[in-house]
């Protein structure tokens, strides 16, 4: 019964993923058309000699990042970068640590700890 239930559950999750994935196909196609248009426009600007107008600096000035504070910000930004394949494992490890920590905090009255707390009470009598 367990195997059948698990197979049905995992199969339904797979079917749901396929349905959700097909919903994003028009969005993906629109993104490809948009990027293709952008590449075509940039190529035409290069071929016609107008690419020089596009060569202006945008974004942060890299000389601002050469300070100690800038280096710390870059370290923080790149340190928080996690590959997509590692996220499920990282979530599982952090979740297990959180559950394990919460379990230790919420169970102060186990048998071993009751004995530990009882020893000073008996010794003080």
Q: Would you give an account of this structure?
A:
The structure is a single chain. The chain is mostly helical and 125 residues long. It has 2 domains: 1-52; 82-125. Helix content is 77%, strand content 0%. The protein is built from 6 helices and no strands. The protein is flat, with a radius of gyration of 29 Å. It starts with a helix and ends with a helix.
- Our Rg estimate from Cα atoms comes to 29 Å
Helix content: over 70%
| Approximate strand percentage | under 5%
Average pLDDT reading: 78
Q: What overall geometry do the principal axes of the alpha carbons give?
A: flat
Low-confidence stretches: none
Output the helix-strand order. HHHHHH
Number of domains: 2
- The multimeric state of the shown protein is single chain
Structural class, from helix and strand content?
mainly alpha
Q: Could you tell me the number of beta strands?
A: 0
Describe the main β-sheet briefly. none
Quote the distance from N terminus to C terminus: 58 Å
Walk me through the topology:
Elements: H1 2-23, H2 25-48, H3 51-54, H4 68-79, H5 87-106, H6 111-124
Attribute tags:
flat; 125 residues; 2 domains; mainly alpha
Give a quick rundown of the structure:
With 125 residues, the protein is mostly helical. It contains six helices and no strands.
